[in-house]
Amino acid sequence: MTSRYSRDAGPNFNNGIKNVALVGTTGQLGKVFVEHILKTGKHNLTAITRAGSNTNVPEGAKVAAVDYNDESSLVAALTGQDFLVITLALTAPPDTHSKLVRAAAKAGVPYIMPNAYGIDFYGKPTLLEDIPALQSILSNVKEVEEVGAQWIGLTPSFWFEYSLGVGPFTYGFDFPNKSVTFFDDGKTKVNTTTWPQRVPDDESDQSVTLAQFVNKPVYISSFRLNQREMLNSVNAFMKKTDDDWKISYQPAGKRSKEGWEELAKGDGRGFLKGMYSRVFQSPSDGVYETHNDLLGLPKEDLAQAVQDAHNWSVSQRASDN
Predict the structure, then answer these.
(1) 1 CB-near residues (< 8 Å, 6+ apart)
(2) How many CA atoms lie within 13 A of 135 on its CB side?
């Protein structure tokens, strides 16, 4: 008979996540996962890397080089892992996610966090209808169930630092040219999350377990903002006013259509332009209730987040030159 409580399960029972495997350790999101997983001191972290790559991972993480065309190498790297976190770039081969999920199931990994970070396509079916790419992302999630494993989805909406600083095709801000495009009137709110937003490193949230979120999304958010509020915060940080910006307005629906047309012509930024402006259409599909309180997530400082986004933007431009 299965023990109902962990205290009755015997000395060899593991009631926590000890071994974590992570794919995409050097990406913008993967680096944050690595930093905070190692910081807890509670987990053994294995970085799954492609054989022959020159991936450098922080001290404290084990490296497992794999051949994605050889399932046995994936299974070997994932055997003994309690949790697999997948963070893949948009440029990754389309079958990579499926190969990881199927190998993890054969290796007996009980929990998988799929590569499905972003907007709430679980609770907003119209987004699935309007953004076809989300159908394939949802298929990635459902495949975890199909192979007999369990998924935990992380839904942060748009990542704040990237979205504010990467260019005008996301939140509409073009820092080098001091211009911003408001979608409609710029007052439609969406949830947005910073990369470091996480559970505090203590034991105060003892009631929270992975079992509460099996095959469900976990909703987190740092702020619920509109573009007007973003610009106010940017102005406060940069000691600027609206007069220092070229401010324009564009209907969100028209902008979204433009994005899809640009994508069809081969401009990958068109996907971001179409998706972001679609979510900003009023009434907003970018607003949801979060699990922040349940997880004990800290309240963040918008001014600090804007500074971090600005610094990230500057460093990205420097690395591109």
Answers:
(1) none
(2) 6
Kindly give, in sequence order, each residue whose CB lies less than 8 Å from that of residue 206, ignoring residues fewer than 6 positions away: none
Whether the CA torsion 274, 316, 115, 288 is positive or negative: it is negative
State how far the Cα of 36 lies from the Cα of 202, in Å rounded to an integer: 13
DSSP code, position 68: T
Q: Where are the domains of the chain?
A: 17-155+202-219, 159-194+223-287+299-320
Tens place of pLDDT per residue across the chain (321 aa): 333 444 444 444 455 789 999 999 888 888 889 988 998 888 999 999 998 888 788 888 999 999 999 999 999 999 999 999 999 987 889 899 999 999 999 999 999 999 999 999 999 989 999 998 899 899 999 999 999 999 999 999 999 999 999 999 999 999 999 999 999 999 999 999 998 865 444 444 445 677 788 999 999 999 999 999 999 999 999 999 999 999 999 999 999 999 999 999 999 999 999 999 999 997 889 999 999 998 888 899 999 999 999 998 888 887 776
Element (H, E) at 40: helix 28-40
pTM: 0.86
Say yes or no: domain 17-155+202-219 is CATH 3.20.20.140. no
CATH of domain 159-194+223-287+299-320: 3.90.25.10
Going by their DSSP bridges, the two strands 173-174 and 179-183 should be labelled as antiparallel
Return the number of other C-beta atoms located less than 10 Å from residue 318's C-beta. Answer: 8
